[in-house]
Amino acid sequence: MTCNTGAMQVIRCFSIGVVALLLASCGASQYAPVQELGYSNAQLSAGNSVQSAPTSYQVRPGDTMFAIAWRFGWDYKKLAKANGIASPYTIYVGQKIYFNDINSNKLIGSNIVKQSVKKPDVSSKITVIKTRPSSSIATTKAPVVSNIKQKEAYKGPSSVKWNWPLKGKLMQGFSNENGAFHGIDLSSTLGKPVKAASSGMIVYAGSGIQGYGKLVVVKHNNTFLSAYAYNSRILVVEGTKVKAGQVIAEVGKGPQLDPRLHFEIRKDGKPVNPLRYLPKL
């Protein structure tokens, strides 16, 4: 009887352990929104930092000139000019974008020469015939068109009067060091209105820039942009004008799964400390 009782206790303990593990895994699944916000493990630890610009970047599906420039802290007009890309800033999957004002045009030229003498394989020839007849090898690349034609038309006022996008406790301050946090985080409540910090035009509204979740970017003039990240809902569309204080989004959850707004101001594409521009509370 003693042996049987001991065996039953072992089985009972094992069963309880299995149930506990199952409950834990079910509970953990409630936090899946972290993945939906588009954060990588590195970004969860480093925050929304501007990545150091590489020598070149190869265009991926879904990229736009604006999104690439934003990711690496460049002004999209400057980046397009450095690569000889004119309005409406059409780029192609597989195309290389260079981050070097001096050498980029030379590199672009050498790439064109190499591509023109390179013989396409059989599969690429078939692809061209199936899509649209053309003698150009470049037609095998899928176009990714940016909507910057509307963005560039808006110049805005010469000076910008800033307001807070919402009232909340400062949770994370600005840093300009390597791997830095190029903005501020404000605590809030889920679904609270996010307001435009100044009048301008919506130049980006979506979730295609990794690390920012649902992001809204407002162009105020040819110098300043402002960004509003971690939103649960976006209430504006690209190409529309907004007034200072107009509701453009609703607060969502940050990487730590608490309600917060990530706010950035960029001057000529470079992040600057928002606290230097926002009025003192």
What does this structure look like?
The protein has helices at residues 2-28, 33-36, 41-46, 65-71, 76-82, 104-117, 122-131, 148-153, and strands at 56-58, 90-92, 96-98, 143-145, 170-172, 184-187, 193-195, 200-206, 214-219, 224-234, 241-242, 247-253, 259-267, 270-272. The chain is globular. Helix content is 29%, strand content 24%. Residues 18-47, 103-107, 109-141 and 147-151 have low confidence and may be disordered. Strand 9 and strand 10 form a beta hairpin. Strands 5, 6, 7, 8, 9, 10, 11, 12, 13 and 14 form a ten-stranded antiparallel sheet that branches. The chain has a two-stranded antiparallel ribbon with strand order 1-3. The longest helix is centred in the first third of the chain and has 27 residues, at 2-28. It has 281 residues and is of the alpha+beta class. It starts with a helix and ends in a 9-residue tail after the last strand. 29% of the residues are buried. It folds into two domains: 56-150, LysM domain (Membrane-bound Lytic Murein Transglycosylase D, Chain A, Roll); 170-276, Glucose Permease (Domain IIA), CATH 2.70.70.
